[in-house]
Design the sequence.
């Protein structure tokens, strides 16, 4: 018994200890720890974006759908204001609704321009006795079978006034400001003549305006082979991608965008429209008309006076002359267009955010085309549609975005960004408060050479980051990304590691977002031509705005839709980052850096500024302050308490309105319809961007204008103030 | 042993059980339950305002401090641009800094107007032979001892041009639009004559403008006893509050506010200023000058032609005539003013919010005065100062506001709201993003009769609620509140339970906040005269803008500072609610209701609208939609998850920008410097508000103007669109 006692004690102690242990465990786990609603709520609100979603995007992306969309939407001409555009809108609406997206058609009634009734616009050449030697073709040849060729609108320039003008010709090269200056310097008079300009380099509307300002009575626009073919390469469409002689580039010639009858407000059913006379002030006052190079050959071949400078010589097989028709010939333009009110149809889909439903990323591409528009805009539209389909699919599999996504198919872009302008004007109130960015698409695949992007500085980083996340469409090895690919093909600024991103300029539907509402915008595409391993330098793809933008063209540019797939995934990834990142991926340091670089380019005016008492030093000082403020602001972000949803929101609210610091209600001094001090298009080329568009306009004024320097002084004050304001806004807390 | 076995078992079981129990307890409490940081954080973020703070306000309020501020700031004239105003700014800065507030002086360099050098502005009367019969007094008599009477600026109208004009007189009553119409209808020609107008009813600048438009060559403004004394009561200052015969009302006569040299941007050291000629276009083109009724007596007494209508007769002891001087007498005005650039000093203090530092309530009152300004603005400034002191004190005792409070002492208000305009222009970027409301003070205690408020509809409820929380300054019983008191003295609109709140109009420093930036504003005071139990009807207090606004006057109006204390507590309570309420106290339903009422007042134009194709029905429809949207929006607030700080912020963000829905960048059609479609001042009276100021301007145009109805059609489109936009903004989520 004695020997068993210690054993018993050991047993009892062990048992008690076990019981205690069991109790501890029971007690511990029986205590409710409410991974309580507070914690759950905060976890939800503080969730960051998840880059792994890209794997799903890659899995879902379907070139078959891209092909189907392109094929379906290029069967018949998609001209704005025609019944087909309503059918196309409903086609998209149906698809989106089938995919589970909340979508609707939003209609506006707008003023569009068409060749009048049965009239054929034409340019003719007459001999001294009045006999017609030549008349421009009324239609481009049918080269690939078409379902309804009769629906193809004849070549014309939208909003050209009607008119019959007759006279001598003057060749104005690309019709840029510097071209007209060169003519003037050479003593060549444009006044009273018909200007003939080749397409390219700048927006056609600017060419017409410069011609008008020089006293021309009409403008003929033509596509020179130098800019639309490759020397020695005879693969014209449909045998290749070069422009055939009968191809004509259509296009509008207005410098004020949106519906011409409702400037500053939307074209709703209750909207006031001024009379025709009032509206016509917004159009060129002289007729203009586009022709192909087969026709231009007759006109340029009749010119005999003043051999052109070397760089003005195009590629037609003749010696280009500045003016003077042989044998007292005359040229006649007979243009009859009419402006009519027609309904247009935007299709708008929305995926609501679950954490910040009142913050929206807008993604849009136009749908209307001059003819079939296979490249412009249907490559873009197909990418928009595929991106929308993929987002619908990940949404249906349970993904919920932090912010809202609004997806838009615009109508009547070709008429001067009409669909997007009217929608932005209509939705300005909430857009200015709640839109974080606008992502634009247009010709998504206009070439096969390189990725290219036009983006405001705030979004540069986001674009770079998205391209870095994607594989190269043409990989040499497994480390090649879209980014490395792009970098290897891009001109880079010396000293900067990244491929070049272009200023946003105008020319597509981002314009009302950035230049009216101040919403940071980006617009990317695959562009440039590489043929048989050779890079072909050209401004745009040769078949732009011609009848030959057909399905077959896309199949030549991007045969397996490798590029379309890449650009789709790029947009999926970019939009994912924009809607899901806890902190908006907008970089103010980059913006400050770009402003500093642009200001350095004003150095050349420094002496003029000094003489004319322009407060240039203060402008420099404001930029330095912004640079510092931006640096400190981003340091603050780095040290932010990401657990506090209001701190995060406050930072995002600042980021979101950085771009709006440069919106001035009165607009630019000479172009009040553009309100962005930095990101409005250049006054010399509507397609292009420039550092300080308002200042550039004023610097172009002749020194003899007494208002020139006072206006510059005032504008520099406003620039300086806007930069200081932004700095103070970032510093403020 | 056998008997002990069961006992042993019981013992072992009990022991184990106890050990287990001990274990459970140990385990349970050893588990960390973190009343975790998440919960604490959410509790902090979701904190609502605490009305009990009012008890502290009541405890702290100190009429001794109010008295000290009034006494200190009325010792010497506080004219803008003089050295004393810098001293006064530093006085306030010192007090605020002593109280622990973060404060600074913000300086602008602006164009101010003064009588020129040693010249004395005057109005004289000559007989036919050119002998001077009378000249207006150069100074008001000194009636109460003054420390530095030589610093008192002679009576003048700021920004009146210099000039010598000579001619006949025409009496234009109050110089309102209807007064000039009546003269015209009666065949009395104003053209080529000097207009003599009595002060009152409308802003003096409008009187001068109407006179100028009628062809007058000069304007004499005088204070008629009818509007500045009480019949049979001889208690003139300093024996009472009535205007003595020598008292003259000073004041500016410009219709565009802010620094006249920097329209649209702040007057910083680097700001561009146009030349003098350009700036002078913004001033009246004819000289004007104010006189007292002693002097007016000579002029009006010399007039003989056309007895005035009954309601034009003033209270001077003579028969008023419309025109015609006896015995070929003539009147001469000799005015020499100069415009000079001078520094002005705003003092700005800030208490940063702890939860939403980026949301700010701005509270301001001007500090400058024409002379001593004891009422205007020093009663207001003393209330501002006492409110600031109380907030500093509760802050120092541990209270932390949710949002930020910015407290502003404005300079140069008397010159056309210059200090506040320049500051708003300077700070526009963050104000438009981050300001939630502006609370204005000016003459805080201009009378002893009733509480009165000019407030935008969004803030009506907040004003009512704050008055309900406060005891009556004159209680009949313990249930009397400031609200019941106010209601018993106010005209109420039939059918509405609340005392009347006036439209905000202009006339004080809220103008740039509401009419340029769209920040909901409110402006309250104690006003109206009750003398010996009798209510005296008058537009404004009789000594307004005269030398006699001295400390002694305030002691007569509010002897024990009962009213000043009440108005201080009102502002403490209102600001507390605005900065601390979890949901901003802005009521969109009220706004919608006011718009509906205002639109009903357009009914009288219905026939005209129909004939001229104005889309009136759609305007009505938009209002109905807004009403519904506002109702649903407030229902949503009522059912909001107050636990979710982002949901709360999203609602507040919408509320905060409701007012901005009515800001249009292009401004009103005829007055682009005002940008608010609803809350801009009336074009007929700068002091007043009106339902649709832009529309009112256009409806005043003669029907012969071919632009009238097209402009109205366009403006109604813009009104309709802004109302629909707000409705959509509220509906959107």
Sequence:
């Amino acid at each position: 018994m004695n020997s068993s006692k210690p054993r018993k004690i050991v047993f009892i102690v062990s048992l008690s200890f076990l019981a205690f242990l069991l109790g501890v465990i029971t007690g511990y786990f029986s205590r409710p720890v409410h991974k309580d609603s507070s914690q759950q709520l905060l976890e939800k609100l503080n969730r960051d974006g998840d880059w792994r979603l890209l794997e799903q995007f890659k899995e879902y992306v379907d070139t078959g759908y891209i092909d189907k969309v392109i094929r379906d939407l290029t069967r018949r001409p998609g001209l704005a204001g025609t019944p087909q555009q309503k059918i196309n809108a409903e086609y998209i609406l149906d698809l989106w609704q089938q995919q589970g997206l909340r979508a609707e058609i939003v209609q506006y009634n707008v003023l569009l321009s068409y060749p009048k009734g049965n009239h054929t616009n034409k340019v003719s050449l007459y001999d001294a006795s009045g006999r017609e030697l030549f008349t421009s073709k009324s239609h481009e040849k049918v080269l690939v079978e078409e379902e309804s060729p009769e629906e193809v609108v004849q070549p014309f320039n939208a909003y050209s006034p009607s008119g019959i003008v007759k006279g001598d010709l003057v060749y104005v090269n690309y019709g840029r400001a510097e071209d007209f200056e060169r003519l003037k310097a050479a003593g060549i008079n444009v006044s009273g003549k018909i200007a003939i300009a080749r397409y390219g380099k700048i927006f056609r509307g600017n060419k017409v305006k410069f011609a008008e300002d020089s006293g021309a009575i009409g403008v003929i626009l033509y596509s020179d082979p130098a800019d639309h073919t490759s020397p020695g390469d005879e693969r014209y469409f449909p045998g290749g991608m070069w422009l055939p002689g009968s191809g004509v580039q259509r296009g509008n010639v207005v410098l004020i965008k949106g519906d011409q009858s409702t400037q500053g407000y939307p074209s709703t059913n209750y909207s006031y429209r001024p009379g025709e006379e009032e509206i016509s002030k917004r159009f060129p006052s002289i007729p203009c008309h586009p022709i192909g190079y087969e026709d231009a050959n007759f006109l340029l071949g009749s010119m005999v006076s003043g051999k052109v400078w070397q760089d003005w010589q195009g590629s037609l097989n003749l010696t280009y002359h500045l003016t003077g028709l042989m044998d007292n010939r005359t040229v006649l333009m007979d243009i009859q267009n009419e402006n009519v009110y027609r309904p247009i149809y935007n299709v708008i889909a929305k995926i609501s955010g679950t954490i910040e439903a009142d913050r929206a990323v807008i993604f849009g591409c136009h749908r209307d085309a001059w003819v079939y528009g296979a490249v412009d805009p249907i490559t873009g539209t197909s990418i928009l549609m595929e991106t929308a389909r993929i987002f619908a699919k990940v949404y249906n599999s349970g993904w919920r975005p932090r912010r809202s996504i609004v997806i838009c198919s615009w109508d009547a872009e070709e008429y001067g960004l009409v669909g997007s302008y009217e929608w932005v004007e209509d939705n300005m109130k909430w857009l200015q408060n709640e839109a974080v960015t606008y992502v634009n698409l247009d010709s998504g695949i206009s070439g096969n050479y390189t990725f290219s992007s036009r983006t405001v500085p705030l979004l540069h980083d986001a674009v770079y980051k998205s391209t870095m996340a994607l594989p190269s469409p043409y990989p040499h090895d497994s480390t090649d990304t879209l980014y490395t690919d792009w970098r290897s093909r891009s001109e880079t600024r010396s000293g900067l590691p990244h491929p070049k991103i272009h200023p946003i300029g105008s020319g597509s539907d981002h314009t009302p977002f950035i230049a009216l509402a101040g919403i940071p915008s980006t617009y990317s595409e695959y562009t440039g031509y590489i043929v048989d391993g050779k890079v072909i330098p050209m401004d745009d793809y040769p078949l732009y705005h011609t009848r030959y933008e057909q399905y077959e063209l896309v199949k030549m540019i991007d045969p397996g839709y490798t590029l379309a797939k890449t650009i789709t995934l790029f947009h999926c990834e970019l939009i994912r980052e924009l809607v899901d990142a806890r902190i908006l991926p907008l970089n103010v340091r980059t913006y400050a850096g770009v402003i500093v670089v642009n200001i350095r380019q004003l150095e050349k005016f420094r002496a003029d500024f000094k003489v004319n008492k322009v407060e240039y030093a203060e402008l420099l000082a404001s930029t330095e302050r912004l640079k510092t403020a931006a640096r400190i602001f981003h340091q603050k972000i780095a040290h932010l308490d990401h657990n506090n949803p209001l701190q995060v929101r406050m930072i995002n609210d600042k980021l979101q309105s950085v771009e709006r610091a440069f919106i001035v209600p009165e607009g630019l001094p000479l172009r009040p319809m553009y309100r962005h001090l930095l990101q409005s298009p250049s006054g010399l080329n509507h397609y292009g961007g420039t550092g300080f568009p308002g200042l550039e306009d004023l610097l172009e004024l002749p020194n003899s204008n007494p208002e020139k320097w006072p206006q510059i002084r005032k504008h520099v004050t406003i620039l300086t103030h806007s930069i200081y304001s932004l700095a103070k806004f970032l510093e403020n807390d």
